[in-house]
């Protein structure tokens, strides 16, 4: 069978994966705190026809002769660039300007997010839409139910009016040595992996040591650029079509070989 047919199949599979990632990006264009994905490819192993030779005996050297066998998936990256901040004027809508993640707990599990739409539960705890507790430097962030109003500063401090004490805690920000190594677990959340490294527990204050600051009354939008995604979609579509043409052409050549028997 022709090598080109299998190369075309590998290309079709890869461009299908690229289209899957692009489709997910576009589906989440309005998802708060969403970080887009990107697909990269690499070539497969090359079949050696002949190796390189050095100059000797009055004859110059020759280059190796190789036939590549298609492409394969290289990486699926998560792009952690800053999304634009959309003003909502709601005090529990929090955006991060800069690096870092909000820290949430679900039972004994710790998860991280850039999505800052938070709410109060019946005990005054600050939670996200799934009921996960927002963490501060001293544990769960809690705003006393008897408070008349509250405000959140850029350093994560919470000032409470009409309650004792007049402080509601300090929101924690976690920063990772390699945020690209975090694993997506759905619901706008990430978890730590062996390649992300552990967050710096000695530097959890917003605006300190390279951590981003907190913007109250605003939400970070998705960092998906629709014009870029549509351009990549066209490239992936044409790449997929080109690989199908390779398979069609290879099939026609095989048909001509079979017809030699007639």
Automatic annotation (TrEMBL):
Residues 216-260 form the Flagellar basal-body/hook protein C-terminal domain. Residues 96-159 form the Flagellar hook protein FlgE/F/G-like D1 domain. InterPro entries: Flag_bb_rod_N, Flagellar_basal_body_rod_CS, Flagellar_FlgE/F/G, Flg_bb/hook_C_dom, FlgE/F/G-like, LlgE_F_G-like_D1. Its main location: other. The keyword Membrane does not apply. It is found in: Bacterial flagellum basal body. Belongs to the flagella basal body rod proteins family. This is Flagellar hook protein FlgE. It comes from Peribacillus saganii. The lineage of its organism: Bacteria, Bacillati, Bacillota, Bacilli, Bacillales. The gene is flgG.
